[in-house]
UniProtKB/TrEMBL annotation:
Residues 88-172 form the DUF7592 domain. Pfam families: CUB_2, DUF7591, DUF7592. This is Uncharacterized protein. It comes from the Eukaryota. Residues 189-297 form the DUF7591 domain. Residues 7-78 form the CUB-like domain. It comes from Caenorhabditis nigoni. PANTHER family: CUB-LIKE DOMAIN-CONTAINING PROTEIN, PROTEIN CBG15905-RELATED. Coiled coil: none annotated. The lineage of its organism: Eukaryota, Metazoa, Ecdysozoa, Nematoda, Chromadorea.
Length: 420
């Protein structure tokens, strides 16, 4: 059976369809033909949202055998006058502007050269269906050439690039979801040549997943963004296969000034797990094929599988002047060893103002090493500190305990876990 429903939409209006589909056979499906020729096949849905603009679209139900439950609701809303908020994208910026889902509004994005737009979402329909209501136009207004929806952008793992230096984003969504940042805007000079973008969102304490990336036809970028805490921590636990991985604090930049770590898949095992703490992180596989696992279970960073592990603890905005710099790490020896040797070395430590820092070493529940630092008691840079025990803890804070906020460049400390 084939059944076609036509969705009519007048000029200046938009329609939202909430679609439901349940079937005992996997073959029955719905084809949704939406804005300006976009098409999508749906095999199951529970009030999943689709959006239509002037010119409308169709919903086509196709079935064979089995029981099918199918239905939808439609509401129409007048879009209102075009009065966009404006966002400026700078080629030199390491932390690109982002946006959540806005209610019946629009954004005009202007870049130094060309605008690059990418999308991030949880892999749940409650979130990614909202991207269907985000329409993108190549130019300064809604009469500019239509590019596609943010949902197409996310599922195709692509970037939209403006012909000129402006891109318009139209939100047909009926509700705000501004706290979840789902759109990333960069200057194309920084993202030029990247073949695929995987936009990954995940909750604190959860495993984001293992991502199979193939950079044979060009670099592949995994972008992760915070959920609850703006300085949410990612822990990179696996980089297996071939190729090299660059980890950027923020977006990819041409000068690579915000790269915090480089990895080679053949030698990465002893350098993982490793945590990264910043509002937006970009993992760029520049060549090869690899599996990359990222988790937000912070405890994974503290676990050491084997002796010879190497890593670092860096503050939230390390090397950048920032009012708030924070770093913490608690690193354990491999299970069953209480007399491991930890080798620590400070590469940089900005102790300006009321910044405080400490290191403590532990063995069988007792403190065996303790050292405090401040603006008058400075750590020795590029000199090794050795601690014997089963774990150590490092803490750095620039301004939490001070009313006067003095910017610092943070801290970067390397560590190794060695045999007794």
């Amino acid at each position: 059976m084939n059944e076609v429903k036509v969705i009519n939409v007048d000029d200046g209006w938009s329609a939202r369809v909430k679609l439901s589909l349940e079937a005992t056979d996997t073959w029955p499906h719905v084809k949704v033909f939406g804005p300006l020729g976009s098409a999508e096949e749906v095999y199951s849905a529970d009030f999943e949202e689709f959006y239509f603009i002037a010119g409308g679209g169709t919903i086509q139900l196709q079935t064979r055998n089995g029981t099918v439950k199918f239905g939808f609701e439609v509401d129409w809303v007048q879009n209102g006058p075009f009065s966009p908020s404006e966002i400026r994208v700078n080629q030199s910026s390491t932390l690109p502007p982002t946006s959540g889902i806005l209610k019946l509004s629009s954004i005009l994005v202007t870049a130094d050269t060309h605008v690059s737009l990418t999308a991030i979402s949880y892999n749940y329909d409650d979130y990614y269906m909202l991207l269907r209501g985000v329409l993108v136009y190549d130019g300064p207004d809604l009469s500019s050439p239509y590019v596609g929806t943010a949902y197409q952008l996310w599922t195709n793992q692509a970037q939209y690039v403006s012909t000129g230096n402006q891109l318009t984003i139209q939100f047909l969504n009926r509700n705000d979801l501004s706290q979840e940042q789902m759109l990333v805007m960069q200057d194309y000079e920084n993202t030029k040549g990247i073949a695929h973008f995987l936009g990954v969102a995940c909750q604190s304490g959860s495993n984001c997943g293992t991502f199979s990336c193939d950079a044979s036809n060009g670099p592949v970028a995994i972008q992760t963004i915070y959920s609850a805490n703006v300085f949410e921590i990612d822990v990179l636990t696996e980089f297996d296969g071939t190729g090299t991985l660059e980890v950027y604090m923020g977006g990819v930049t041409k000068n690579k000034n915000n790269v915090l770590a480089y990895y080679n898949a053949q030698t990465s095992a002893s350098y993982l797990p490793q945590k990264f703490q910043y509002p937006l992180k970009t993992y760029l596989l520049t060549r090869g094929k690899a599996n990359i696992n990222i988790t937000r279970d912070y405890d994974e960073f503290g676990k050491t599988k084997d002796f010879g592990r190497k890593g670092f603890i860096a503050s939230t905005s390390y090397s950048q002047l920032d009012d708030y710099q924070h770093a913490y790490g608690n690193i354990s020896a491999p299970n069953g060893f209480s007399s491991a040797k930890f080798k620590l070395r400070f590469i940089n430590a900005d102790m300006t103002g009321n910044t405080m820092m400490y290191i403590e070493g532990y063995q069988n529940g007792k403190t065996v090493f303790e050292k405090d630092y401040n603006s008058t008691v400075l750590p020795d840079l590029n000199k090794d500190i050795f601690i014997t025990g089963d774990s150590f803890e490092m803490y750095y804070d620039s301004n939490s305990f001070s009313q006067q906020k003095i910017p610092t460049r943070g801290v970067y400390m390397k560590f190794e876990v060695l045999k007794p």
